[in-house]
Amino acid sequence: MIYSRIVSTGSYLPPRRLTNADLTAELAAQGIETSDEWIVERTGIHARHFAAPDVTCSDLAHQASLQALASSGLQAADIDLIVVATSTPDMVFPSAATILQHKLGITNGCPAFDVQAVCSGFVYALTVADSLIKTGTAKRALVVGAEVFSRILDFKDRTTCVLFGDGAGAVILEASDTPGILASDLHADGRHKDILCVPGTVSGGQVLGDPTLKMDGPAVFKLAVGVLESAARATLAKAGKTDADIDWLIPHQANIRIMQSMAKKLKMPQEKLIVTVDQHGNTSAASIPLALDSAVRSGKIKRGDTLMLEGVGGGFTWGAVLVQY
Ligand code: ACO
Q1: Distance CA 15, CA 1 (A)
Q2: Residue span of the structural domain in which 304 resides
């Protein structure tokens, strides 16, 4: 039996960091009222990073990938599959993954494609890469979550523009005799497409409709808590594990209240919850690999630890992956 395991991680945040005070001042200049107190109390967010106007999704993905490659000791040419989870690619097509392949100087013709599942994108991408390794199609996959959500925010809508940030995280997944990815569980329910979406599109050379993010926050909140718990439980059952086997919980970093309630439902102490939403905001598909890399680099997560990764986002999509690191 072939399994896949995470060899290394990497991440990148664009240098421009805005605290709540910075963002509040910028919004106030446009007549939009918010406060550090409101943002912290409702979300746990203190700061986020925004990419410069000329920096694209694949630029962030490139930096995170270089760090993951450096930590693995592998060369870019060793990669034989690239999967990028993003909802904010550089262009309509080609995919951010093929652009990333070129930036990494990979000319071995390996498959490269994007996965679009909004904030669940990374758990979807990791599951797809794991499956392709298990079938023998790939041996070393670069799996990236990268977003420039600042590009699709309406800075006149205070209910959404304070929540998101830009960044990228990457892992290298390698074929192995022993399991690293223990189990996963993915779902979608398109009936909820309108509660979280960017409804615009491109047609005849024009943007049709609204190209900025719309979210019914309370509706998303309510759905997220329920589906995250069911995905975590299904994943544990598939792996023959229980709550007590999880060493670290790495949920999608959207809202500290959703994350803390997940830890409670899984009977985990809050210290076992990896939190980066406070410093990164919600970076959509990038949030889980960014949180994973930060916990690996800080020494919290050690080899052999069992990690529960969980994502939920637009679509509605959701899923979980149980990893033995
Ligand atoms: N500053 C000040 N006041 C604000 C702001 C702001 N930035 N935004 C909203 N308010 C006000 C509202 O106008 C409202 O005022 P009112 O009571 O006078 O009408 C009040 O605050 C409460 O608004 P709610 O939307 O009910 O606030 P809530 O407590 O639900 O928090 C939040 C909003 C943070 C968005 C929350 O609902 C949430 O986190 N939802 C889940 C988001 C999530 O998990 N997303 C994951 C997927 S993201 C993806 O896939 C891209």
Answers
A1: 43
A2: 182-324
Domain boundary residue among 149, 177, 205?
A: 177
Number of domains in the chain: 2
> What atom of ligand 1 comes closest to residue 314's alpha carbon?
50
Residue nearest atom 7 of ligand 1, based on CA coordinates: 158
Q: For residue range 206-260, what is the model confidence (pLDDT) as tens digits?
A: 999 999 999 999 999 999 999 999 999 999 999 999 999 999 999 999 999 999 9
Residue pair 80/305 in contact by the 8 Å Cβ criterion = no
Co-location of 241 and 162 in the same domain: no
* Domain match, 76 and 155 both: yes
Domain holding 203: CATH number? 3.40.47.10
Q: Pocket of ligand 1, candidates 37, 41, 42: which has the most ligand atoms within 8 Å of its Cβ, to mutate?
A: 42
Both 162 and 195 in one domain: the answer is: no
CB-based contacts of 6, cutoff 8 Å, min separation 6: 171, 172, 173, 180, 181, 323, 325
Do 97 and 151 lie in one domain? The reply is yes
Close Cβ partners of 262 (under 8 Å, ≥ 6 residues apart): 225, 228, 229, 232, 249, 251, 273, 310
282 lines ligand 1 (CB under 6 A): yes
The pTM (predicted TM-score) of the whole model is 0.97
Cα(209) to ligand 1 centroid in Å equals 23
Residue nearest to atom 23 of ligand 1 (CA): 159
Same domain, 33 and 145: yes
Cβ–ligand 1 contact at 159 (below 6 Å): yes
